[in-house]
Amino acid sequence: MSSTTGTVDFKVGDETYQTWYNIVGDLKSGKRPLVTLHGGPGMSHIYMISHTEIYSLYGIPVIFYDQLGIGKSTHLQLFMDQLDDLLVQLGIESDFDLLGHSWGGMLAADYVAQRQPPGLHRLVISSSPPSEQLWEESMLGYLENFPAEFKEMVLKHEREGTVSSTEYQAAIQVFMNKHTCQTIPWPEELIAAFVSVEEDPTVSNAMLGPAQFNATGSLRTWSVIDRIHRISCPTLVTNGPEEGAQDYVIAPFIEKLPKVKWVRFAKSHIAFFEDRDYYFKAIGDFLKVD
After folding, report:
1. Total Cβ atoms within 10 A of residue 92
2. What are the CA-CA distances from residue 67 to residues 42, 73, 145 (Å)?
3. Span 83-111, pLDDT tens digits
């Protein structure tokens, strides 16, 4: 399997940063490449690496990259600028597909709605909400299903700002085992992605905040709902029944996207671990239509 790793310069004002990328496959193969946007915000791409399966099964080149990890990256437009810059520097801006998971799908949806890139052919929004408010409401709803003392302990830590405590962190792991990834033990690359946030929580804390159920960062009022209709390309929306992006949360995508296909997987937030074969077949079948 051919793989190319490198960096490209990305300028932000007077500063120059590096965008790390990995290309699996050959961009000159004649097959339209798939650009992946990882979740977080503030994670690395590592937990998405199983999307190399798209290349293995369908010969579609897959591009991974790490989103900005600088303090200024709390501004959504900067993430869009970085993506535009990478597309141009790799020479694929006139012909590409885009897949975003979780926060990456939020970014992808707003990027397409606002910038309407002419070279984009197909969009995949994987387990992503169209608004942060809907996501938070969904997650709080799941918390209600836990014992009252569990819920109160979690919310008390969040109110008092003690979310770094062992008790809170252990409780959040129990919650995530049910509503983030039901593959137990968690795959090593997923653990590594969460470790990357723990090692440098700057972006995550600035955009969401340190608490699981109460966003306080720059994304707390984010919504793409009033812009969804501007996404004109064929779009695949996927979700699971036991995750934050449950059916009623993604309903605005299904109702407002002009060209939409919806695939519902069986479990929670990360179907490419929980339902791998079906997930990659659904993605591959959607991308290879043209």
Report:
1. 19
2. 8, 9, 34
3. 999 999 999 999 999 999 999 999 999 99
Q: Residue 152: what residue type?
A: E
Beta-carbon count within 10 A of 18 CB: 11
Give the C-alpha distances (Å, rounded to integers) separating 160 from 133, 164, 167: 22, 11, 13
The alpha carbon of 61 is separated from its chain's Cα centroid by a whole number of angstroms, namely 19
> Structure pTM?
0.96
